[in-house]
């Protein structure tokens, strides 16, 4: 199927100005940062409440894209050599084009929706069915109004089965997705109470989800979700009662597997799956029902279900040997997921040198995918590519023609045999391999060895939280992200790279050295430095950092420094003290400051700002208002002498949504980005960013009355099982958590600390926790124990806990 720009204008029934009507369109893009094949791409300028992609057309055009779908009336004057298609609604146009593309194919299309498990069911069906089918599926969890059309666009004549997931957050969205996916077989994984936002209740949510199955010949779901429906033709349910199409007659959990009996049309299918948790069991049943429905032989189903693999779709970013960063993306290998992995690699700007280690592509039937991979690697300027696998023997030339440095190995074992740590230094490395290649063994070689206490940082959660606050910003308000103190413990360079990618306007750090680290990591956003002293001036200027000037002394010293160095128009920020009484000019200092500002050509005042002392506290709202009134009065005086525009800002995380009238031109987002709502108002759906984990080093039984740890302050009252865990106060696990004040989370249970916390180790009482082993994982804070809870046990605030985690604790970055 080949489309030209002209075809697409016709399909969309749209006006167009075409400089090259025959331009071939192979790729649809909606994200200005994700361009691999500019010459054959069509850019849809989507508009959302937060972002208008028409603003990025210049950037996209400069990167070589010359086909655009834009809103009617867009001024194309500046782009002389491009094709423009004009529509009223660019998102609808994208969806319509995808729907038309979909309609050309007659092979079965499975559509999956539900509250949980969509991606896992999709990926498992792919595992279970790919031996017999050539499957096209949604990349990762591309299931939104934008993700679905991009997924469906991947359908081709070479495929004979498609599997797409559909996710919604508001009434009305599913009808649009149904038109694009046009599923012939449907799966409803489940309807949970989660994600109720946007829906009145569970019933409304169910009704909305069922719209996906409007034209399906059959759809499959749980008895309890569909019981209320008229179970007639085409609706197939599974459950324990005899009324179901698929009768689940036995669920027997063993140590590491579960046995399932499913009765379907008088035959009994006996299965083992290598999982024991309820969610996996449910997802496996959904998959088994689909396979039965497709008429696949019982023995084959049993054989393949036994080999189901866990799904971890997340990319892992790990600190590697010799100052490398390693991105582990070796869960599965297809072209779409490669492009996502490469984008993530390119975000790692701290290293100019990029290496990709890549396996054979199991689904490839001919040379084409290999050629395409080579082109993608070349398009992203990858310097070094290491290929692993026998298929690549035949296709080496594609890589050699396009990449500066190439190496090839027959197998993962052969790579490991020839491995030398010296070959990897100061670079970012992407490992992209199909599961059978066992790239985790390569990851283990490249990973820097440290002790087993790690802090996992969920990058998707940071982006989610960023957007949660962005959605609360008044129109035109800019956002400064606070990445001081190692980005509240999460790691400044990694977090700043992510924020830069997501186009925040400004960054702020406490000290000049923190700013230098960011510049070294390739951050080019403007960076404000808050805690400035004379010794830092040189560093500030060399690294193009912007100082906060907070007193007459520091102001005068900086001006004379600029004078001495022959610098003019240097960007600075003026800090006012309106009640915090930490740093800043007070109103009574203004008579001295204003004459110095007037006509001062050494500096440009980028912003004037102040800090709220108690924005999270409703009892202090009057004080907060007083602060803002004083702030406005001071700004007015400064404006008079400067005579030019400067940015005003006073709001921190809590103020952003508690006091929207105080957003002025910019806000400073700190703790909220890291998943903590300091006001505890729970109006925002923030996600947990940081998880601190360790492992059990040793288990011992101790008789009643014996004592544990230093000074014998932990006494057992019964015969006890005690676990020594690999974390202590030197890691940031406070001594205040000792003597039962704090708890940790193991195997679904809380275990109290017993005795004194030591420097590197802590003992916890695990007597009542079953099946515990040495080496088991222990959560200190994260999903199960919120960091706020740990803060409470320590009689402090989450800020102190997060920033107190020692740098020796390895940070691992996860991205979905
Ligand atoms: C740390 C800091 C912030 C961010 O505060 P949060 O409560 O973490 O949002 C804002 N402004 C200044 C001056 C800060 O020092």
From TrEMBL:
The active site is at residues 484, 710. One of its GO terms (cellular component) is cytosol. Signal peptide: none annotated. The keyword Plastid does not apply. Substrate binds at residues 582, 759. InterPro entries: Ala_racemase, Ala_racemase/Decarboxylase_C, Ala_racemase_C, Ala_racemase_N, Mur-like_cat_sf, Mur_ligase_C_dom_sf, Mur_ligase_cen, MurE/MurF_N. Keywords: Isomerase, Ligase, Pyridoxal phosphate. GO terms for biological process: D-alanine biosynthetic process. Residues 689-814 form the Alanine racemase C-terminal domain. It holds the Pfam family Mur_ligase_M. GO terms for molecular function: acid-amino acid ligase activity; alanine racemase activity; ATP binding; pyridoxal phosphate binding. Its cofactor is pyridoxal 5'-phosphate. Transmembrane segments: none annotated. PANTHER family: ALANINE RACEMASE, ALANINE RACEMASE, CATABOLIC-RELATED. Catalyzes the interconversion of L-alanine and D-alanine. May also act on other amino acids. Belongs to the alanine racemase family. This is Alanine racemase.
